[in-house]
Predict the structure.
Amino acid sequence: MNFYDVISELNINLENRLFTVCEGDHAGEKMIVSAGEPAWMSNDAGFFSLHAAEALSAKDGSLTLIDGQRVFAELLGNEKKMVICGAGHVSMPVIEIAKMLGFRVTAIDDREQFVQNALDHGADEGICRSFGEALAGIPGDPDTFFIIVTRGHMSDSECLLSIVNKPHAYVGMIGSRRKVGLVKQMLADNGISRDVIDSVHTPIGLDIGAETPEEIAVAILAEIIEVKNKTRKSDGIPADIMKVLLSDERGPAVLATIISKQGSSPRAAGTRMLVGGDGTITGTIGGGCAEATVMLYASEVIRNLGEKENHGTLKPVIMHVDMTGKDVAESGMICGGAIEVLLEVV
């Protein structure tokens, strides 16, 4: 089984880590660790067969020197998903901002016209059923963010009772302190532990004095960003990139992964972009001059492959992109950072 098939079949409810040798004699070798145990190695008799224990002690989202080789360690996340219970006026700006931030958004409501409005505002999926029935079909996982913004505390209670025992990254519920108190008491009466009840973010959102639906949406998403970024979990290989990589019809491509950053570069280590031989770009490593530089170099690499059939065995290279230099500053696009990008022919 190849690397991308293994990644696609990982149990997303377990802690999954990926280690990649970035340069040196073993450049390109990979190891996947699931639930603390090595689950797959690209070379069973290679680098990680000797150095798995050292790799496991590496800090996620960082480069670690092991036996003279630089190794990138990352805690793999998955596609970030947002489930919004209730498709009223607050939910519309929440959907719009969440889509800007890269979430896959599902909106649930028992009113057909409200679900259609959510879809019109950019939701990826709309479910028009009772909240309990709809949530029964959503398993949740450590990268799912649940938002409860229904029209009444009875519906809030139904949603929260269904959600709290699902795997999740975040659960937030809107409401007055009285309404929140009633719902929390209902959970306690149903045997939900106090620790679980207290983990619910309610009243939802950061306290920024928000009043309008748009301001409330900003407060909610700001809190979700704060929770999301407390872990050093990467986005793994995003679903749109995985779809291309698993296609039998694709040609050679270059997978670009940020493996280190300094200063104010816009995207974190672990962010990925795929450059196809036909010029298509899937994903982003932050846009601007840095991304354009990587795209041009990756395209040149693909052109130089020619008809080589063993392109998948070529060793990766590290590209240094400095966004603090004089040329960048004179272009007016300076952002004050620098990144190292691992380029792998796939």
In short: The two ends are 15 Å apart (CA to CA). The longest helix spans residues 288-305.
